[in-house]
Specification:
512 residues, alpha/beta, eight-stranded parallel β-barrel, 21 helices, globular, binds flavin-adenine dinucleotide
Length: 512
């Protein structure tokens, strides 16, 4: 086996961050303290109000995901059917199972039931069409052949519907297609930059990991060819990578292997990104992988310092919903200072909330690793934003959110500190809000996270977006719901809920 220059620092010897499992209220009280007098929420809400009103005057089309989720909330039978189909249908290999799955899911839902304007239009769409042609339950014998022919048509139509839903979130099926779309979008909105994401989650095999690696390499070459290495890195398009896509055993128990095999791989991608002077960001994944990600990140930071000290495009995403998010920012800034490099840090709220809660409950952990009140995550996001803005000497902050109140608060704090930064949104989300924000202030820049890939690789990504936007507390969801007034939509998050919103995991197992 080839030797590697990477040192295997055992995770057990590292104590860089506090435990993620600690009482929520104490952490939030501390974050509120750090925001005291640093933010005027009333002024932020006043700035965001006109954006929200403008978006509501020009709502998204009926087929947009926000509209669909308003029509079929995730909590309804129809929403669940949509979600399960989106999650599973595209990867069912054989027709029989696809027919059975579609029949099962569509028979639980009533897509035509509550027909109002949007629904009536949607009922012409594939899903309700599908349902009409479904074989009746238990249809056998005489009608069987027709039923089966019908069933295949149904599956084809339903597949089409799921693909349409997915298309909203994918910029292009190939990097070349995606870059063409990006160029067209930039002609309409010159403040846009893009960070391409090659679709795919956790590699299962070495061949998967190799395939993703090649995709990333090709994408970087394409982005490099269209970029300008002489420009400041934040003006060029960039790439986002998932460590779990680049190694089949990206887990703490495989620490040695990950350091030996994954670090050189990512270093090779960094080399290309540095030569092209583009931003390469490591996406944030599950809480229990954070320590491992930090080991990889620190090994790479040392390598970047040695090989590309003038490249300022190396970066990582940080999740504000984690109870230790602010300490993480302090640590990352410290790593950058230690190595004398500059980083780009994308602050997100966190996309795996449901999964993190479920995992903590299953394992009976003492506390949740993420906040349980939505407004606590918002508080943490703002406190982390401030911490990033205070680390301007080594960090270029990138604020990824679709929440108008959060955006206005960030802009206010950044302006107050005379700081450079960029905003970010996901392709297919937050277009309305950002149309208004960028129109209001043409000096602001927004980077679009743009998934690239075939629709059958979209599933995990699509389900995350559906879950996120289906939640009642989601800003995008509330924005689409006219019954929610401006006061509620832009209410200040800056207050403490003393109790966890959920029973602590051990309480679920008592007294038995
Ligand atoms: P909001 O509606 O204001 O916030 C929703 C978020 O609040 C949820 O996503 C969740 O984090 C949190 N939340 C919801 N319910 C609760 C609750 N009951 N208690 C506590 N908190 C709650 N996510 C990643 O994990 N890794 C990434 O690498 C990543 N990259 C991204 C890149 C870009 C450009 C963008 C825009 C987002 C990215 N995300 C990533 C997704 C991000 O974490 C959020 O899920 C998403 O942006 C929604 O947050 P918001 O501020 O737009 O909306």
């Amino acid at each position: 086996m080839a030797t590697s220059p990477v040192q295997d620092t055992s995770p057990s010897t590292m104590q860089r961050l506090p435990s993620p499992y600690r009482p929520e209220a104490a952490v939030v009280a501390d974050r509120l303290q750090s925001l005291h007098e640093a933010l005027d929420w009333a002024a932020a809400a006043a700035a965001a109000g006109p954006w929200v009103q403008a978006v509501r005057r020009h709502p998204p089309p009926f087929w947009a995901m926000e509209s669909l989720l308003k029509e079929y909330p995730i909590s309804s039978a129809e929403g669940l059917a949509l979600m399960r189909l989106a999650e599973a249908l595209l990867r069912v290999p054989d027709a029989e199972t696809a027919v059975a799955l579609t029949a099962d899911q569509l028979s639980r839902a009533d897509f035509e039931g509550a027909a109002d304007g949007a629904l009536a239009r949607l009922s012409q769409s594939a899903i309700s069409l599908s349902k009409r042609f479904l074989p009746a339950e238990g249809a056998q014998g005489e009608g069987g052949v027709f039923a089966r022919l019908g069933a295949r048509t149904v599956v084809a139509a339903t597949l089409r519907a799921v693909q349409l839903l997915g298309r909203q979130f994918v910029l292009g099926q190939t990097i070349a297609d995606a870059m063409r779309e990006a160029a067209a979008a930039r002609r309409r909105q010159p403040q846009l930059r893009f960070s391409y994401d090659m679709l795919g989650e956790g590699a299962r095999t070495a061949a998967d990991a190799e395939r993703y690696f090649v995709h990333y390499e090709e994408a970087i070459s394409a982005i490099a060819a269209a970029g300008d290495p002489g420009r400041p890195v934040q003006h060029n398009d960039g790439i986002s990578i998932k460590l779990s896509a680049l190694h089949p055993r990206y887990e703490a128990f495989q620490h040695g292997r990950v350091m030996q095999e994954l670090v050189p791989r990512v270093a090779a991608l960094c080399r290309r990104a540095a030569a092209a002077n583009i931003n390469l960001t490591i996406d944030a994944e599950e809480v229990d992988r954070l320590e491992l990600s930090l080991d990889v990140f620190e090994a790479l930071a040392a390598q970047v310092a040695r090989e590309h000290p003038r490249w300022h495009g190396f970066g990582l995403a940080l999740q504000a919903y984690q109870t230790r998010a602010q300490e993480l920012i302090g640590h990352v800034a410290q790593v950058a200072r230690r190595h004398g490099i500059r980083l780009m840090c994308r602050l997100v709220k966190g996309a795996y909330w449901d999964a993190e809660i479920k995992r903590a409950q299953e394992l009976g952990l003492p506390h949740y690793p993420v906040f349980t009140h939505k407004h606590h995550t918002d508080v943490s996001y703002l406190a982390c934003a401030r911490a990033l803005l205070q680390a301007q000497d080594v960090i270029f902050p990138q604020f990824a959110t679709h929440n108008a109140g959060t955006i206005a608060a960030i802009v206010q704090m950044a302006r107050g500190m005379d700081a450079k930064f960029e905003l970010q949104r996901l392709h297919g989300m937050g277009e309305g809000v950002y149309r208004e924000v960028l129109q209001d202030d043409p000096t602001l820049a927004c980077r679009v996270y743009a998934p690239v890939g075939r629709h059958r690789d979209l599933l995990a990504y699509l389900v995350r977006r559906l879950l996120e936007n289906g939640a009642n507390s989601s800003f995008v969801h509330q924005l689409a719901d006219e019954s929610i007034g401006m006061d509620e939509l832009l209410r200040s998050p800056l207050h403490l809920a003393p109790q966890s919103a959920l029973p602590l995991p051990p309480a679920l197992y008592r007294p038995a």
